[in-house]
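[job 0412] stage=fold_complex status=start
inputs:
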Amino acid sequence: MKPLRTRKTKKTPEPEISQPSASDIEQKNMPLCSSVAENLITFQGIYSNCADFDYRELIIGQDQIPVLLLFIDGITDEQTINQNVLKSLMNIQCSKLDVSGSNSIEMIKNVFMEIGSIKEISTIGEVSEAILTGNVGLLLEGTTKALKIGTKGSEGRIVTEPVTEGVVRGPREGFTESLRTNTALLRRKIKTPSLKMEKFVLGSCTMTEVNIAYLEGTVNPKVVAEVKKRISRINVDSVLESSYIEELIEDNSFSLFPQIEHSERPDKIASGILQGQVAIFTDGTPFVLLVPTMVFQFLQSSEDYYDRFIYASSIRLVRFIFLNFALLLPGLYIAITTFHQELIPTPLLVSITAAREGVPFPTFVEVLIMEVTFEALREAGIRLPKSIGQAVSIVGGLVIGDAAVQASIVSSVTVIVVALTGISSFCLPSYSFGLGIRVLRFSMIFLGSTLGLFGILLGLLVMQAHLVSLRSFGVPYFAPIAPFNLKDAKDLVMRFPWWAMGERPRLFAKTNRRRQKFFMKPAPPDEKKP
Amino acid sequence: MRKRALMMLFLVPFLQTGCWDTREVDRLASVLAFGIDRIPGNEPILLTVQIATPDTAKGGNKDVKAGGKAFTVMSSKGKTFSDAIHNLGSRSMRKVFFSHSKLIVLGKDLAETGIGEIIDDLKRDREFRRIDWILTTDMTAKEILEHGFSMEQIPSKGLDQILQESKESGLILPVNCNDFFVRLNGDSHVSFTPLVQLVDIDKQMTSQLEEVAGRPLESEVKPKTLTVAKTVIYKNQQMIGELNENESKALMWLVDSPKGGFITYTFAPEASTNGEKGKISLDISDGKTIITPQISDNSISISIVCNAKASIIEAETVGIDILNPMIVAQLEAKAAETLKLQLEQIIDKAQKELKSDCVGFAEHLHTQYPVAWKRVKNNWEDIFPTIEYHVSCEVRILNTGMINNTLPTNEAGGIN
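[job 0412] stage=fold_complex status=done
writing structure:
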């Protein structure tokens, strides 16, 4: 079959990414000069108009060898430079050892430098990269090698309680913007060398460090390979937040459902890694990605595992019910009141009719007005400072709750429906999943008002078909319902007690599924047996 | 290409059906009950609908105007039933919506001349529900629908509650449209509905009280009350007779298993020496009737076995010991006898007076002896009154209550 409309196949050459340009690459690969003075001129050229670029020239040893230290002010730890780097260089003079000659750089590295992280490098590009990430570049007269001295240190936010995922019971620490702090928080929870963290640097300008963390032996190696493959594909100039990566590696860009979970809770990421998922840490954001993801994870809060399982299961059940409310309630309300009045109990129909007396708009418009107003209020409340946000909610509450009804612009039943929907949408633990539901709710309103219950059923069918067709890194998105797996379903609507969940989810951990000893159900000691 | 095809598929439903049958609720007039009468003239059907008035029916609204009725009654004439509904449109500002109706009231004239012409539309139109209660009145349906209750704002709701309550307390068997139609089309073509009446109970009682008091009572004049206590029998779509209160109760045993009800009878213990007598009331908690037809030598007989579980609710007989198993056995036997009499009475009435099988023997015969039924099918009307039947009842008293005799006896055996 011929396509109806042929697309214009004008071949435009793929534009080169502006950074780095060809000359830059050439310069990057250039070896260092043996003269310190010439190197300084080169670097001053590279870092022209960079106010935070700083250097220190000094002379070491009895042979009076000039040394150049290059660093960027602010991202290096000044104390380390003063007390460790400079001091050890100065100390060379006192020793009788000879630091001139071909092995001078090894001497400094192996004998003198009182610092943990140190590495030999040899090109301009390497030195440049080293100082941009907060290290000190040490250049020595008479050699074309340089040293990268780890003096990273920067001002960062301290570990605080995560704002988006609060818990009543459970750890209160949250990730920060610093990658190393974040990986440290994780490492503090999973103390095994099997916890691997592989480093990637993304973004030609931002040079953002990205770590993927997984538990070797538990994780499905194919997933790790897939994650690496997708991340290596990324060639952008900047990565400012983990969502940049998320959008570049997710399976279906146009789906309304998020296919990658994110969290700023170390305990949540740790539990994901422990059951065979891969975490993607991005420098500069507290949000860590977790792949592969199944849709039901968005309905689970980390607190489900900290409360006793009966309460946790009941709360999950409530969440499932209110998920349906958040998605369907306004649509169902319109469908039933405009197409299927025979479904409403008679006294309720009479009240709805009475409430609608004098309302000038059809129910569809009425609901739409209220829903849009509610979304606006919600948006206003998020962006505004807390003190003004309260004022907005009071005014909004009054306007919606009372004045609009009094003025017969909307009926009171509609207000109840919209308010209940709003509360329901707050029951969803995941904000990004909630956003998808919010968009879908409007389609359900539209379907319900044009086709009635038939339309809503149609919408649900299409949504369901889409959900079961989604994959996240090779794992069916709607698992463990489709494909159904009874063992994985132990952690679905119900949260089984820990002693009953002996195995990791089948789809995450293919081989090493045993998590713990079986039959650990606690029981009081048998008093009859001595 | 595939995506485009999917998109088209998704859009097709929007072209098929849609907004055209949207009805906003404030454009609807919900009919709560409707009644049909027959009037002379060339438009013989008079339809009366009882419509909820939303402004006033909304419970607890402060804005309710004083004296505002929660319902409105409208009537219209027509050549046929559906014609009458159609004509109602010229008077109603809103679309008349029948799906919420709970009751159908058939007027006396219509019931006597035949209801065949309205049944078809009731069955055909999807707006009418098969679970509507169907009632017959000995007056006109219009009068019944215009009459209100003092305790319930909407009379049809009150009647609905009365019918549901009476089923549970074993007073009368309510009949919904479906049951009514099924029985009417059944083997015997006999069906029944409860009878709704406007009775001036208050006046009767007041006059009785005046008799006792010997002076005129000071009481305000109360309106008549809607009462449902009797049953009307239809045969071939025509009303042919009615059952009184007791017969209506007994009918329940034959066509349905009562879940409640009372048996009240006079009881004198056999061993009683001084002729003690009193009334006993039993509350039936569970009743079950098994009807078995038997065929022998071309004659059909029906065996009816009733089982009931009951508890003593009131025992005003002096001096009996209800803790004595012998006495309880006597009580049970007497209760069974009372029940048996009631059942025999109604079967007799059906056979001799009404000559119609309202007790549903035909269905039992048909299901259990289909071949024999074919033989008698055509002249069942003649055969039914001649059928022999045998009733046996068993009442078991499960509970005599926590208390023993509340009325102490004196030496003479009289009441203190």
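[job 0412] summary: The CA atoms of residues 215 and 274 of chain A lie 7 Å apart.
[job 0412] exit 0
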